[in-house]
Amino acid sequence: MLNQEQQKAFNLMLTGKNVFLTGNAGTGKSYLLNEFIKYQEKQKKKIIVTAPTGIAAINVGGTTIHRAFKVPLKPIGPDVKCMPGDVLRSADIIIIDEISKVRYDV
């Protein structure tokens, strides 16, 4: 069962707006995220769950950002092309866990 703060965040996530979910360790962010994913899967939504590292991706039941969006491992400059279009167009919801650990060029 979600507590009052989690329910508020859950409701905000349901609006379809971009949400930056933050909080201290042990506050239930992962629990809230898993509840949101379960709810949306019941609604037949296509969800892409990503994280910047393999371990983080495993922890959220997703894949790395690099694999999901075909982002090269090397720094992205003007001569590097990323083509994640089909993946992005096919998703109803995109979740990026631990976004603060993503390189600025990504």
How many DSSP H or I helices?
5
The largest sheet has its strands arranged as 2-1-3
**Average predicted local confidence, pLDDT:** 89
Question: What's the SSE pattern?
Answer: HHEHEHHE
Outline type: globular
Report how far the terminal alpha carbons are from each other: 35 Å
Secondary structure class reads alpha/beta
Number of strands: 3
Q: Provide the gyration radius in Å.
A: 15 Å
Low-pLDDT residue intervals, each spanning 5 or more residues: none
Share of residues in strands: 5-15%
- Strand count, sense and closure of the main sheet? 3 strands, parallel
Number of domains: 2
Helix content: 25-40%
Helices and strands, with pairings:
Elements: H1 4-14, H2 29-42, E1 47-51, H3 54-59, E2 63-64, H4 65-69, H5 85-90, E3 93-96
Parallel strand pairs: 1-2, 1-3
Helix pairs in contact: 1-2
